[in-house]
Amino acid sequence: MDTTLVPFSQFVLKMHSRCDLACDHCYIYEHADTSWMGRPKAASDEVLTRTAERIAEHAKAHGLSAVHVVFHGGEPLLAGRPRLRRAAEELTAALAGVCALDLRIHTNGVLLDERFCDLFAEFDVKVGISLDGDKAANDLHRRYADGRSSHAKVIQAIELLNQPRFRHLYAGILCTIDIRNDPIAVYEALVELEPPRIDFLLPHATWDEPPLRPDGSPTPYADWLGAIFERWERQGRPVPVRIFDSVLRTLRGQSSLTESLGLDPADLVVIDTDGTLEQADSLKTAFDGAAATGFDVFSHDLDTAARHPGMIDRQLGLESLSAQCRACPVVRSCGGGLYAHRYRTGHGFDNPSVFCADLLKLITDIEEQTVSAPDAQAPDRTPGPDQEQLRELAAGYGGAGAVRALADSQFEVSREIVARVFSQTGRSPEARAAWELMTELDTAAPQALDQVMAHPYTRSWAYRCLQGDGGADAGGLAEIAAAAAVRAGYDRAVRVPVRGGLLRLPTLGALRLDGVSEALVTARPDGFQVRSGGEPLRISTDGDGWDDDRDPRWQPLRRCELPGWTVALEDTDPQRDAHLHPVAGRLSRGEAEAWRSALAEAWQLIRRTLPGYADGVAAGLSTITPLAPGPEGSDVSAAARQAFGTVGIARPAGPDTLALLIVHEFQHVKLGAVLDLADLFDPTDTAPRFSPPWRPDPRPLEGLFQGTYAHVAVAEYWRSRRLDLIGQGADDAAVAHASAAFDTWRRHTAQAVEDLAGSGSLTELGERFTAGMRATVAPWLDEPCSTRPSGRGPALVPGS
C-alpha cells in the first residue's frame, strides 16, 4: 500500500443523471461540461454492487474507521425507492465489519414523501435539501422547465422532515448565494425552517466566466455573507452555518468543515451512473471533461483514482496554490478557495479564486469581530493539549496545564452540544427566551455562563437530550440560563421547569417546590427570588453551601475548600445519575461532614504520595458525586464519559481507599477527554476480544485501554502507599498487604500494556500512549518487593 496516498473517505454516488427541475445556475447542466448527456439515466445493479465492493476494499486497505456516501444526481429521488434501497443494501452489506457507514442523500426535495422517509429511516440515510431562501429568492433559479415554482413542494418536504419521527434524518439546507436576494430575508427564511445546519455556497464561477457583480463592488459576496454573520452572531449562533464555522475553526488552527476553505487535502471521489470515477462535480464549471479521470469501478481500484494528477493536486495543500495565494495572510483559512473557482484558460488552476477579494474580506472581518478583538464574544480557547502535555498524559500523569487544556477542549464540546440541543429541540417560546438570555450573558457576564456551561451535568443533560432520553428535555436551557443569571446578578426573570418537585439550578443547588410545574426565577444581590404562586420565596446563595440557617426547602451545593483544591459534593442535581450506579440522596449535615473529613485526609495523602497526579486532579476534578453504598459494603466508583470533571464514589471506609478511587476514576476522565480529541485506536474495533488480568469477562479494545490507563495509577498508588507505610513504621501486615497489591497491579498493568501494543488496532497517537504507559510501568517490574501474605488479597478496584 502506498503510504503517501491520501485515501478517499467521502464518496458521491450518482443515482440518477437527470433532474426534474431546470435550475439555471446548475453546474451539471448549465455550465461547461456536457458529459451528463452520455450517461445512463440511473445506476445499474452492477454499478451499485461493484461500487460497494470498491469502497469496502479501499476502506479495508487503508484502515478507515468510517466512510461517508452521498446519494446524488441529477436528482437522486428520480432513481426511485427500489434502486435507492438496493444501493443502501449493497453498501451496508459490503462495509459490515469493515468500518462505519454514514449514508446521506442530497435532493431538491420536490419528490420527497413519507415512503422515501420510511426507507431512509430504515437505513439511517440523512437528508440534505437544496433551498435558496424564501419564495422570491428560491424562484430566481429553482424552477421547473415550464417556469413553475418549486418552493411550495420543497417547504412541504422540510415540514415532513421536521416531524418528530423523521427529524433525526434532517441533515440541513444547502443555499446557493445570489447577491440580488436580500441576505437577511434569505437567512431568516432558512432559520425559520429549523435546519440542523445551513450551508451557504458561492455560485460556481471561473475567471473565464466570472460571478455576477451588479454594482461593480469588488466584494459583494463578502458583504452579503457579512450581513448574515452579524445577525447570526447577535442571535447567539442559533444554527450551525458551515462557512462561518469553517472560518472560525481555521482561524484557530483547526480543520475546515468544507472543501471550499482551508488546506486540508481533498478526500472525495464521484462515482457516476455508469461507474466512471470522477473528481469533484464543481469542476464541471471549468471546462468540458474537467472532472474526468479515465477510470471506472469495473477496471480500476480507488487507489488508482487517488493517484490521478488532478486528485493529487487537490491534496497538496499550500504547495499546490499560486504564488499570490501562498503570500496571502489568510491563506491557511481561505486555502485558495474552491479548486474549480481558480480556473482560467491558459493558466489552468494556478490562480487565486475568482472570489479572492470576497474571501479575504470575509475572513478578515470575521477575525476582527470574533478572534482577535479584545472584547470578542467567544474567547480563543486552547483546542487541546500540546505535544509536551500529551507526552505527560501518555505516561499516565498530566500536570495542571495538561488537564486544563483537556478541560478547555471539553468546555468547547459542551457548548457545541448545548447549541445542538437548542437547534434540534428549541422550538418553544420558553426555549428561545432561555437561549436569547444565554446569548446576552455570553457577552455581558461570560464568566457566570461559563461556570454553568462547564458543570459536568450540563453536558450529560445535553447529551441525553440528543439521544432522546426521556429524562432530559429542552427545559434544561432555562435551568442553565437561570443559574447563570443568578451567578451574574442579572435582573431578568426566567421561567424554569419544576420536575419531581425540584427546581434545578446547576452549580447552585435545587429547591423543593411541591405541586407546581414551573416557577419564575429572578436574581437578587445575595441570591434569587422564586415565584410559583402566592408570596415570592427569597433564597440566599452566600457562602459555600454549609450554612444550615436557611429555608429547609433549599438544597445548596456544598463545596469543600481544601489546600490547593476546591471540590463540590454534588448531591442535588437530578441529572447526576450518569454513572450506571444508583446515586446517594441528599446528604445529611453529618454525612456531608464525614465526606469533607474523608476528602481532606485523602487529598493530603494524594499530595504527599502521588504528586504526579495531584496537580491534575486539582485542575480538572471539580465535582464528586456521592453514590449509594455497594452490596455488603463493597467499594463502588465510576466515571461518566459525558460528564467531564466529576467522578461518582460511594464513600469508602477509610480515606486511603478514597484517595485510590479518586486517582483511579480520574484516569478514566482524562482518557475520555483525550478520546474526544483524537482516536487512539480503530473505533470500529468493538469486539470483546481482550481478557484483562483484572476482569473475568472479555473486553473491547476501548475497555482494555481505559482499564490499562486507570491501573497505571492504581499500581503507582500501591507502590507509593507501600513506601509511605514503610516510612511511617507501619505494622508488617499493612506493609505486606500494600506490597502484594503493588506486585499484582504492576504485573497486571504491564501485561495489559503489551496486549494493547499487540492489538494491531492502535493509531500513531495510541502507540505513543502505549509506549508512554510502558515507560512508566516497566521499571517497576525490577523493583524488589516483599509479598508476604497478610491474610488479605490485593485490593481490587471497581469500575475498570
TrEMBL record:
<dbReference type="Pfam" id="PF04055">
    <property type="entry name" value="Radical_SAM"/>
</dbReference>
<dbReference type="InterPro" id="IPR023867">
    <property type="entry name" value="Sulphatase_maturase_rSAM"/>
</dbReference>
<feature type="region of interest" description="Disordered">
    <location>
        <begin position="531"/>
        <end position="552"/>
    </location>
</feature>
<keyword id="KW-0949">S-adenosyl-L-methionine</keyword>
<dbReference type="InterPro" id="IPR013785">
    <property type="entry name" value="Aldolase_TIM"/>
</dbReference>
<feature type="domain" description="Radical SAM core">
    <location>
        <begin position="5"/>
        <end position="234"/>
    </location>
</feature>
<keyword id="KW-0408">Iron</keyword>
<protein>
    <submittedName>
        <fullName>FxsB family cyclophane-forming radical SAM/SPASM peptide maturase</fullName>
    </submittedName>
</protein>
<keyword id="KW-0479">Metal-binding</keyword>
<dbReference type="InterPro" id="IPR007197">
    <property type="entry name" value="rSAM"/>
</dbReference>
<keyword id="KW-0411">Iron-sulfur</keyword>
<dbReference type="InterPro" id="IPR026337">
    <property type="entry name" value="AKG_HExxH"/>
</dbReference>
<dbReference type="InterPro" id="IPR058240">
    <property type="entry name" value="rSAM_sf"/>
</dbReference>
<dbReference type="InterPro" id="IPR026335">
    <property type="entry name" value="rSAM_SPASM_FxsB"/>
</dbReference>
